[in-house]
Design brief:
8 helices; alpha+beta; D-amino Acid Aminotransferase, Chain A, domain 1; 25% strand; 5-stranded antiparallel β-sheet; 309 residues
């Protein structure tokens, strides 16, 4: 994707998935690319329509949770872009888990019973529900891997004040509860997700995306119980299957490892999975939009002109 130049642009940053433009040091334009990352590595080939899926789910979910806490979003000039307030981000991601899966399961299966300062109960199987959701924060790394960290360490190291962390914790539990209810209406279980927060002055805002396949994991509710009883893998909607494929092909983002070749067929499978997740989570048909770079630039510029006056 091209790098644009917008009115009163003061900064540009290309992240793992999004291109972020700072406008007048007050607003952000985020363009969701079709890039895909796993194990903190950007994979070589883009995934068709992934950016549109992420952006539209995030916008839908931010709207559906704006009564819980204020969020950064102002509008979506195009299906793959978002315009919103620029916040000073907290250097932590609030990861919340309802089930023992993914990284939590790998930690548990290795014999450890503590994750981010949270004690995990004995006798759990992969994908079992926790008695209540647990928050397992990670540091938000500018470069390299995010790292697990406990609430106590976050506060002790001054990464987030005790007062602010209490608010982040309250918002995280409430957002996850809302996310689970929204998922349940669509026959899904919101298994785990992450939230990012920032501040403008003294006000805390929810930032970035929420409840998307890049930040969340969903199981199909109708087959969950039966599969758990049989010890079978859960049918899920997330990008975990991409991680699993990479692990099977000896790649976990470690030094010296090479990203395996991804066939066009596998790329198409990933794209279809993202579209399936959109349609399941939102409950609407996904409309593919193939926008030219000129249309994207013009639409965002028009939105900015109205905002900047």
């Amino acid at each position: 994707m091209a790098v644009f130049q917008f009115p009163q642009q003061t900064n540009f940053y290309s992240g793992k998935v999004r291109d972020v433009y700072t406008i007048a040091d007050k607003w952000l334009v985020m363009i969701a690319s079709n890039r895909i990352s796993a194990f903190d590595v950007i994979l070589p080939k883009p995934i068709p329509y992934k950016g549109q899926v992420l952006n539209q789910i995030a916008a839908y979910m931010l709207k559906a949770t704006e009564d819980i806490c204020p969020n950064w979003l102002i509008n979506t000039p195009t299906p793959n872009s978002a315009l919103g307030k620029k916040c000073i981000p907290f250097k932590v991601e609030m990861v919340i888990r309802g089930n023992l899966t993914g990284h939590a399961w790998r930690t548990y299966n290795s014999g450890k019973r503590t994750l981010c300062g949270v004690t995990l109960p004995e006798g759990l199987n992969e994908n079992d529900f926790f008695h209540f959701p647990i928050i397992t924060p990670t540091t938000k790394a500018d470069v390299g891997h995010d790292e697990d960290i406990s609430k106590e360490d976050i506060i002790a190291r001054g990464i987030v004040s005790e007062q602010d962390y209490a608010i982040l914790e309250k918002y995280t539990y409430a957002l996850f509860e809302r996310g689970k209810k929204l998922a349940a209406k669509q026959g899904l279980i919101l298994v785990d997700t992450k939230y990012e927060f920032g501040k403008i002055g003294d006000q805390i805002y929810l930032m970035d995306e929420i409840h998307t396949p890049d930040s969340s994991r969903y199981f199909y509710a109708d087959v969950y119980g039966e599969r758990q009883l049989k010890g079978e893998k859960q049918k899920q909607l997330s990008k975990e299957f991409v991680r699993e494929w990479l692990i099977e092909n000896n790649f976990m983002g470690k030094e010296g490892q090479t990203v395996p070749e991804m066939s066009d067929e596998f790329i198409n499978t990933i794209s279809q999975r993202y579209i399936e997740l959109y349609e399941k989570v939102i409950g609407e048909k996904f409309i593919r939009k193939d926008l030219s770079e000129e249309v994207i630039e013009r639409s965002i510029t028009n939105s900015l002109d109205k905002l900047l006056g």
